[in-house]
Batch of 4 targets.
Target 1
Amino acid sequence: MATSGGGDAGKATISKKDVLAEAEAKLAALEKPLKLQISGRDCKHDSLSVIEWITFEIAPVKVNYCVTLSKSTLEEKTANLDLDQNDRSIVQLMELVFNQVAVMNPQEHAVFEGGKVFMSHPWIFGFHEKDCPDVGNGARLYPGTQKSVRFIEGPGGRGYNNPALIVDAKKSAFHEEIPLIEKAKLILNDNMQDKLSRIALERLNTGMRGLFFFTKHMGHECDHQIAGIEVHTAEDTKFEHNGKIISVVDYFYDKYGIELRYPHAPLVKVRERGRTNNYPMELGWLRPMQRVNISQQSPDQLQRTTRSCAVPPGERQDNIAKGARALKIFGSDDNDFITNAGLYIYKNPLQVPGRVLPPPKLRYREDTVGVRDGKWRTPRGHLLIPAECDVWAVYGLIANQDEKIVNRLLISFAEMFYKEAGVRGIKLPHPAEIAVRLDEDQLGDTLKRAAQHKCKYCLIVTADSIKTAHKRIKLWEREFEMVTQDVKLSNVQKIVNDRRVVTMENILLKANLKLGGLNYELELNGMFANENVKNWIRPGRLFLGIGVSHAPPSRHGDGDKSTPSVIGTVTTVSDVVNNVFPKFAEYHDNKFPRDLIIYRSGLSEGSFSTVITHEIPLLRGALAQLGAKNVKIVFIVAQKEHNVRLMLDRIDRARKPTDQNIPPGVVVDTELTHPSFKEFYLNSHITLQGSARTPRYTVLVDDLDLEMDELEGMTYVLTYDHQIVNLPTSLPTPLYVANRYAERGRNTYTAHLISGSGSSDSGASIDYGRLAHQLSYNYTKLSNIRVNA
């Protein structure tokens, strides 16, 4: 502060620096947070004027937090095998730095969780209208980027540790910035002039609940969030105003001079300031850049979105570059945030060496076939172990189809199925019953009666338009302990009318597995010159898949609190050895396995420490109690939900997506991998559309000290053991099947709740132990066959 004489005597000049220093000193001396209140009427923004008081709470930062980036820090705090010693904040700091351009430019970017950023004006960054297609129901796809930081070996290879910025292109559906009434018209395909049915109201509630919108009938914009769609309309909703009862229609005309054009449209329910208000839908406009969540998507919209998001590698490379430039992370020369943090991004992506593993052969009863380009054909003749079934039936579930025509179709299909089953060695009599049912409840009664008459297998042909029956059919399968197979009516029509041989073959291969048969086995001899290949899948080695199906996001983005995470093994994780090992011994001269190879999904890298410090010791303890403490454990985590994309260094964009992608068998195990753990990327599957998503395998425990060739080789050959479709799967079969069982468990649980039999199994009162016993297959006569094939 300074004073001056003359006419300005007595005036003080205070610099900003002095003011900030004084404020900082006062804040540091605060014993508790300082609260300041201002009236909304004093704010310049009209939308804030309706708020009576706005409270600010100011508190000093008590700890001077500092993250130091240096070569020694990176080596000691990011690649330690003792995961508790690693400092996650180093990665978080880098991710914050790389996100600053998006955060500081909200008019151009919308920032979401998991490193996702989407462009609100993508054409500014080189995208075109075709990149942002309309996907229906007032929603449009917008391009964006997903980025993360991970420490890898880098170009130096083993023993080195480098931070890598991993960038991938993303697309997501967003609600368009349109009037609410227009959104409702698109969702329902209705002009909104008449009162809606109960079903239409439910659809509208599902499609619009949780969305933010604004109104401006008060002379300025006011923001609201939709809590639900009311049954009542502006015409039939009345309330007291100035001593008389008036309708919502009259209120808006009398007070605002607005004549509502959709008096029979439902009102929008909003909760604000402790009360519930209802607004006419035609007065609201949606706010921009609101993502369409899963529950808001119709089946048609989901199909369009999936198809539009399937971008081939050549186009994906362009989209990655455009997204990186938009965030100024395609190189870092013009990004002050990165430069000021002392970081630097190389513009060229990392190029890593890879190799292609040879596939196994598949041995059937009478022939052994080879694999070419990731595909093979099932030879004619008997399957390796054909199943047997004494009593079976065929039922149709139709919607609007002609019952007599469908019944004749089922008779023809059943005869073709019976004959082809005989060719494959499957022993079946003619079906005990062929019938058509008109609704799901009628079908449930029929299945119950069939089970009472000792029926072992029901083949159910369902009209394509029926979307809800499959989960109930699988619940009935569990309740009646009778194998079911659900086939779409359109596929049966193709088999009967067009003689689709491959479609019938797939249905039969699945049926044989469901009935306890085995279609083929793996033949490893000749894969490599190395004789050790035959020991990859050897007697005394047990492969176990553990898959988890987590509760899906709710309508508001949080998890469904009443739906548990489902673990897809033959048992729960804690009881795994007590259930699996006796079954293994039963078929192996009462001997336990020597090696236990576990493939685990559903884990993030942040969970690795928990696995190593908790799950593995518990597993070893259970083995010791069982008398199998000498069993060697190999624990491998498989991850598909990462944003690393492996692409060919040269891509011919004129070719179809399958040819642009990396082929089956490509493995990468250097430079791109974890600096401490054994790790590899293995692309085992054919990518028919879009860009390959290659699973990453991290070995957390390896008592056998396996060579990388064996880890990769055994994982790859196991992807050929799915037994149904003649293609390798994206994950080894034990894990792939476990994931499907976990998914089945969730669907069965959902059907159990909807059926009413689960009314006591909701919320905090759920008895998961009883549910596991009631709904899992482990305690039924179906426990030893693969019913989820």
Target 2
Amino acid sequence: MKLQNKVPLYVVLIILLTGSAGAVAIIAVQGQASRYQFEETARALSATIQNGLEQDMLNQDRNHVQQTLDDLSQNESIREIDVISPAGTIWASTIPEVIDSVSGDQARELLAGVTGESFLGEYGNRHMTLITPITAKAGCLQCHGSIAAAPNAQNYLGAIRVDISTDLLDQSVARSQQVLFLVSGLTFILVTGTIVFMLRRSVLRPLSRLTGAASRISDGDYSTRVPVDSAGNEIGAVSIAFNNMAGEVERNTERLEEANRDLEEVSHLKSEFLANMSHELRTPLNVIIGFSEVLKDTPPEQLDDSDRIEFCENIVTNGYHLLELINDVLDLAKVEAGQMQMTPQEFYIGTALKDVISTMQPLAARKKLRLEVDISRRLTSIYADMGKFKQIMYNLVGNAIKFTPEGGSVSISATIKGDMARFEVTDTGIGVRKEDRERIFSEFQQADGSSSRHFEGTGLGLALTKKFVEMQGGHIWLESEMGSGSTFSFTIPLPGRGTLPAATPAEREIIAQVAADTNDQAPPGRAGTTEPVPDSPPILVVEDDEATAGLIGAWLREEGYRVEFAADGAQALEKARAIHPIAICLDIMLPEKDGWQVLHDLKSDPETADAGVIICSALDNPDMGFALGTADYCVKPLSRRHLLDKLRRLQQAFPRKRSQPQVLIADSDAGSAASTAAMLQRQGFSVATATGGRQALAMALKLSPDIAILDLMLPGDSCFDVISALRRHPLTIGTSIIITTVKELTEEQRELLDRRVQKVVVKGSNRDLLLEEIFRLEKLHPVRAQLVDEETGLFNRRYFHKKLAEEVARAQRHALDLSVLLAGINGAAADVMPGVAGILRNNMRASDHLARYGVSSFAILLPETTGEAGLAVAKKVVALLGKANLGADISISIAAAASPDGTISSEQMILRLEQELAILRQAGGNGIRAIN
């Protein structure tokens, strides 16, 4: 039975039972009240008869008593009246047959004085009997004289028994019951109907709606809603909650259906991706295996050199293509797992784009495409992960070349938009439909299946590109028209506080031309032979896989390096101590002792701590490597170009030892240049000369001189542009510059030179002054100041540790703030300071020196780095040291100080610095302080 039928039935039953119980109670009460009223009427009647018969009983007037009884018998309700004598016999009666008979026990007991009260009781079911005594009262005895003398005073004269019919009472009660039942029935019907109506309207009908709606929802109709009659009661609240729930179910169902569609689409796309990937992998593998079998099985005399080279090139090309496919899949997996690491840094746009263009130019030339580049002159550097930035450009430019037909063009442009650098790659290719412009940035997707089959590809390149851009704080979008080409645009943040100065137009032209000139030259160390020269720098390759070790060794020997090998950690440590390599290529997955432990041991040993370690491993964990002190990190499979680039950067940061200090002289007067060169050569300097600005810059980039003597009036390019270019390029940023001039400098020129050069000398003045300044600068050079090792040409960490330990001990003895003198860090500060910061960040011994002292101020003294330039260097070092996490009790302060006239000794400068640092610490701890 349904609830909407059960509830009314239960309500009717409850009301019926309750009403019946009430009616019974009312009838009982009413019957009792009618009986009581009837009894009172009977008593009143008996009293009246008693009063009327009392005198006759005294006078013993039997006839008059009988006559009175006969008159009373006319009352329909009186069935019988008996007058009983004191002797207990019926003296008079309305029924003649009972006269003189003996009365009942109740009357005799009453007359005998046993009860002394009237008797009232039912005699049968249809009548009521009332027996009342008749006594002689004093008032009735007046006619007999005094009361005392009156006979029978207060004695019983007899008794009256009245038998009254209850028919009238029963009829009255019956009528009352009928009225009660009628009223109760009408009330029951009215109340029950009202309650059932209200229940149906307020409860049952909404519940029925809810039940129907729930049933329809269970059948799949998620748009079902129930009307809300009133939101102020519980049913309305339930209806509202039900509608909300139904809406949520509908939305969740839509999301689930959409997710199912997405899953089906992803499943389809993955199936398509696997089919495409199968083709993409098998194609290069087939080529590699095929040409390898040809080379293996074909006798050498049957293949000429051109065929052999062509076959090898096909193998290498397809191997790199296969590597690219695998890297894309691995990169995507890293990004999705949140394990892709970014290493943002500020770098020159030209440096990165040069690599991209040099790689993409052959691909464009193969399809006869014009590859155009337009970089805004205002844009010099960006802040991003350089490797990921190149990969973004490789993907976009590679796609543009792939989808552009022969004879078209691909252009790369870069501009500044607010605080972002905006890059655009535009092609004249097939274009992308509007509905495909968003989906092509999703994994496994290209514009359509036909394009995928026609142009090949896995559909991962743009997805990775989008993720790389967004991970670096940028945004990427596409503008395209079918048949008219496409423009992919993306943004990359600009440096918040640039440390690389902007280039002037003239400087850009000089650098560009010099770069073009140097690109035409053969790479250093490659003279067409794989045999290294006897004094070539040693490199240790630590690799347990013989094939990989042989491959790395072949690459290094081609560059002119001397290569030694170690297959495990013990051999690596032994050979590193024996040959003192300038670099170590270290694998992590080594037998017995892994590469992390080997790296720790290398950096903990003073004999091997100076060697630059480049990790070459399939394990991608550069953070661990840099934390332990590695110089760089390469993830297998290795790229020859990338590995050699890292080695070159390592050598640029720590140049090789020179047997003689190198001086470059650039003068407009060839005779003056020759005279100065002869003077310096007699003093043991290696000298090179140039007669123009462009030639001077080219020679400086080639030689990395210790000192450059520049004529202010150089022909061709401005001397100021040459100075700016020297200060910007990493190979010459440490070169000390002396300016010679015959003209008086303006205030503006003097201020400009003060920030960029070490000395200005007037031409024609005493040559001893020039020689004295050159000797002073030479002594301050990092090599001569013992910051660079004389044997290896690398930053001398052992010397730094030694000086640091000495200064800590001295500071502890005298309760001084800690300061360390790093003498002679002038223009070379940009190279040396990162090394210092690296020691403090990565080397536990240096940190322990500081930690043992407790509350301390660590100061680096920078002689000859004054003014704004010195302050800029100091701020940069503070930023580097701030990442060292030296401890909460260490206060780091950097001071730039100078002794232009040479009258202040190093010890005096340290004392002055300690005083300043004490003041600084009292004022609040960390900060920047310039001491001039």
Target 3
Amino acid sequence: TVVRQLHRRAAAWLLERGDDERAVVHLLEAADYEAAAELIRPLAKRLFATSRYQRLEGWLERFPPSFTTAHPWLLLIRAELAFARGEDGVAEQLYRQAEPLLRDREDAAGLYSLYYGLAAIAGAKHGDFAAAETLARRALTYAPADDDAAAALGKIAQARYITQGAIPEVFDLLDQALERAARAHNPLRRASLLVLKGGALSNRGDFNAALETWHAALDLMEAYGNRHHQIAVLENAAYHHYLLGQLDRAEALVRRALELARLLDRQVLYGHGLNILGIIHRARGRLEEAQRCHREALTIQQRLNIKYELAPTFAFLALLARRRGQLDEALRLGEEALNHYERMDNAFERSAWLIEMGAIHLAREEDAEAEAMWREAERAIVSAGARYEQAQLHFYQAVLAHHRRDDEALAEHLGQAMALAHHYEHGDPPRCLYFFLEEAAWTIPLMVHALRRGLVPECADCLLGQLGRLAFDTILPLLRDPAPHVRARAAHLLGRLGEVSALTPLAARRNDPDAGVRQAVEEALGRLLSLPPEPLRVQTLGGFRLWRGDREIVRWPRRSARDVFLLLLEQAPRPVPKERLMEWLWPDSPPDKAAQNLRRAIADLRRTLEPELPAGFPSRYVATGDETYALRLPEGSWVDGIAFEKALSRARTRSGEEAIAALEAALALYGGEYLPELPYEEWVLFRRERLRERYREGLLALGRHYEEAGRWQEVVEVARRTLEEDPWSEEATLLLMRAYGAMGDLSAALRAYESLRERLRRDLDLPPCEELTALYRRLRRR
């Protein structure tokens, strides 16, 4: 009793100072459950707003079960916590348990919380947004304050736009809600309403405005500490960045959301985030990773019975199957998704999926089925003002018209699709919807047709330019099209694509009979030749190999072309006089013959490095002076010998463990003898010996650092490696003897000395140095 009285006094003292949360703890210790419950009631709203769920859970565990079940507000708090954990069935049961208690007490604020919570469950668990709207309107009649009214209005707006699309009434409701939130001075309520508004803007097709709104909401949540509510916003923003092709930003946001969902145990949101990560993987061509994400999401949603999330997950799996060419599986999964959408009684979401289902039938060449689905979908998406879905629909209808060779229908649908897509322009240069790029197999022939017919010229240039190599092989034959305007636009696009393999076919059109084509060709050639060439990667240590970009050059027309390259590499970027090259490579040939050989070798080298370079165009790798040649190494090029020497030089500036790590990395670059293919060439011998000496110096330096660190086994290994390179190295033998001595292996230390003494006597007729002999004597006396 005394202890309880002390806890009550502590609670009273804390309440006087405004520390309500610590006061609750003392009231619970005093077993004053009624007072604690009354104090928790106003605190709960603040703790939920800032996602401090664990504190509430800790308090509720302290109440006796008999007290909790008879106290409606504790039941409401437990219900809201269960809903936050994704336990919708538990939450609904608790809300229903609290309802008669609240009605008996005529507790308006409690009834508001009850119906607001049930509205959230009706949408999230059952996908019944008509019921959700009814419950939210009932909650609004009990709203005790502006902040509560704002939340209820937001819930009504959400249900309305999900069932009917982004109709004007939705924005009216959200504006009313934001006005109430402003009067309540609640930034987190404003953030949650901005999230809803972003959803409505997205539904209407204003993705850029939606993203701006969501990022404003995230800023508010970050500033006022609501991590739980950030997860869904991060996921929505990630999805829309994906729709706009901003894949790096999308992936960063969704991974942040997944990390929060895992940390806070929000399994429903974790599953939703996995789906978004899956479609990003799909867009990047990582199809196995996409499959794993969607399957894991499906497992979570089936375990928790989250019916509303099952439909999009099956839809994403269907789209992935279509991408893989598994059209039977795509149809099966698509029909499963459609069944789930129909059970949700959500006309808009169902119609949006019908568009994709039509595309699956289109891929299966089931045109009649595709058309039937699109006709059914069109009414709902047009009435909802959903521009994104309308753009998709017209694009697929244009593909169908192209298959049927119906030019009139193609022009109509393609024009409408591109006009709608312009609403999504972003970036510099401007881009629009990413799904055109994901549908490259259909987009490319459509855009080529558009290019020939003069349809949507800006869009054709934009999309074909973005599709890069995928579009290259389709555009190249257009250089021979009978129509001059098609040849000119093809040349323009080939210049934009940046594929240097277009140089030769473009050069072949320099004498085109049409002046406009000739000008376009010259501009394209100039653009391609101004591009930085691919970097070179050269291996000279342990054997010569050469890569240009990712392609290894394995065939050389003549050995002289390879040798000229190696000589120029040795001096790069300095120019090398032609006479010196001739003296090194053809010392016994007459000057005229040597000059002819050099010209042929340089021509062969240019063709080897740049097989796509047309005759008469200057090489971007080999620079020609009056009497010199020079090798240009583009930015990003790498030569192992140069990298090795630079790494050793950097290692000299380090000490301790940093020096060891730097030397280990540098020595790993020495792959063996410099250019072993050229064992006797005089111009190779000097550099070969210099690099070998640098390697030996690096080994000895590493051995000394190992010795300072007391890493004796590593000293032994390095010393042995040095002796393999230089069997007469006295310094390496000193390291070896000291290491064996430190390890207590005196016989090995003595054998190391005796072996060196024998090699020096036999090969060089020299004795070991005095330092070695002195160490040997000291070790023998031990």
Target 4
Amino acid sequence: MLEPTELLFLLVIISLHVFVFSGTEIKIEETKELLQQSTSKAGIKRKKDVQGDQNPKVAKAAGDTSASRAAYKEYAANSIDERPKGTDLDSKLETQSKELWALKDDLKKHVTTAELRQMLEANDQDSTGSELDLRERCVDAMMFGALSSCPICAGSLRYSGGLYRCHGFLSAWSKCSYSTREPERLKGKWKVPEEINNQYLSKWFKSQKKTKPVRILPPPAYDNSSGSQAINRSSQSAKSESLGDLRVAVSGLPKESMEKFKRKIEGEGGLVHTKIKKDTNCLVVSGVLDDQNAETRKARRMKLPIVREDYLVDCVKKQKKLPFDSYKVEAIGESSSMVTVKVKGRSAVHESSGLQDTGHILEEGKIIYNTTLSMSDLSTGVNSYYILQIIQDDKGSDCYVFRKWGRVGNEKIGGTKLEEMSKSDAIHEFKRLFLEKTGNPWEAWAQKQNFQKQPGRFFPLDIDYGVTKQVSKNRKNDAASNLAPELVELMKMLFNVETYRAAMMEFEINMAEMPLGKLSKRNVQKGFEALTEIQNLLNNNAHDPSVKESLIIDASNRFFTMIPSIHPHIIRDEDDFKSKVKMLEALQEIEIASRLVGFDADSDDSLDEKYMKLQCDITPLPHDSEDYRLIEKYLLTTHAPTHKDWTLELEEVFSLERKGEFDKFAPYRERLKNRMLLWHGSRLTNFVGILSQGLRIAPPEAPATGYMFGKGIYFADLVSKSAQYCYTDKKNPVGLMLLSEVALGEVYELKKAKYIEKPPEGKHSTKGLGKNIPLESEYARWRDGIVVPCGKPVPSKLKASELMYNEYIVYDTAQVKMQFLLKVKFHHKR
């Protein structure tokens, strides 16, 4: 049987684990302090400095087990008694604890809840919460002085888990994460309002000292060096969550990523394979789930979790094996075959309502009763969406209020509700719910007037349904085409919805509740603004570290609220930051493609009509023409020696004449004589935007980081240097590349990266000088003396350059004339 003291220890152990799993911090020393008070209040005499194996003898009773006794001994010996007993700090903590409990008991006996609240208000303290909350705040302030407000957000501080934490909001987007062990206190005595007629408080007020003592806090019992708050666990528990327990199979990851994970995980005792083994924990995949992949099929047969690459990223970052649930991609793969976006009027009825075929979104003038709300707060783990619609019957006046809510990327969490009501009641209910969820009246958003994001509330997303009618990967366009066969195949590549879907899934955009290509330009711009703020914070060391962290979290919250993602996280390193810049650039191109021609596969918007909307003449070149042979030589000759993972095969070449581009380029052609035919590579999803609008420079709201020589249009003279940016793989090996005539003029030469807004006066472009260059004696000349640097790569005479290969940058789009579009097949060796 367990002794009373042992039983109490075990109860606290259980409570400790409950608090750990609920995300609440517990300090070991505070637990000890609690135990001291609890045993005292329970009437059990506590023998000072008793070790875990020196327990007072009491009679045994039924229910005792050797396992429970062993657990008690281990916890008492190792967890609580880590600090030597009998120290001066130990004595001071015990004395302070007795005084705290005595004051708590007195307030409970003699002071009402209303009087507690009055005192807090009179001393500028937070007066919200339960009676217990109010009493705790009063005790702390009466003993040690009233707390000053949070230095970051001016919110109220409260003592919890060995720290004083802010419970306010840093901004409308984030809860404040400020915490401290040494809070500022207000000067002066604790005030007792005159209207309180309480003898106990009057007596206490007269006896209080002018100078308050400083609260003694137990030393931290956890490591907070990395921002995490992890309670010291037993060695056995720590081992069960270590990287050494990872046994993963990896499929489809780039070689560099594979080697990085293998080095870090196997260095800790884990294993990383390319094939599933008997002891494999999970299968890690990159991009879209491939149902035909042998490892995918094997994982399903073995019922292994299939997770995204960021699972390994987070495991390595946190140095432990994490749960699989929030990283699984199976649900995404299963639901990716059909995106039902059925637009009627100016909006789309959500498919979960079951009314897509029989109803439409209610519209009154410019007002559309349809909204998608988003909220992401990394400090609390919130990552939620809320969809609200009024659906009207196509054949009558019946209306329905439809709601769908849940966690982004997790269909298992959330729900739906559909209520039938009159039109007037539906509008009233819609507005009531919108106000409840956002803190703003519906009119403020619908009319774009004075909408203000409210703390802890949702924010509406701008969704532009454009011209799309329905998207289905299973439908084929059977309309006859007057285009050349080569051009028909190119158009199918450009307008293949699966390509765009894969790009959004690669960037973990919430495909389930974000129709393809419908995130508006405004949202993307807001995302860029949040990234720019993060960039400024990362480069600024003037802030206090805790303040800087809070501001980075706030900006990350804004980013992931505007760009709903399956796995939002704090953007705090350069690689992650650059990947988000690339994501927004890709979303910009998808938005352009969606707005221009949509992703409709219906025959009434044929490939010919899509081609016409590009406003760019695209003509296939005969394979036996001089231009084709020159381009093929340029491609085959200028493959850089370090780009060994793939070879290139030219499939087709198309000449380009984008409407209006020649006229804009003409002045530079006449004025700047240094003109070259140079390479530019990009994702397949970017080419609808490129062909219709030309090569463009990053927008002003985009952050500066990620552009080695500033915001401009980048070119190369070695094909493989540009081909890297096509981002092909074994499953999708065909990419598109451009050859453009570039008016370089006087060149500003640099041997290392340098961010500039534009070249110095008298210079028209920037050239990064590489250590390897095309052999100049093998250069060719094209029309009107345009230089084609088609020589084989050779070492340059430069020794001090930090760049491997040449790069060319222009800062004015009019200096570029697109000449050829190349369809290129990548033969990947791995």
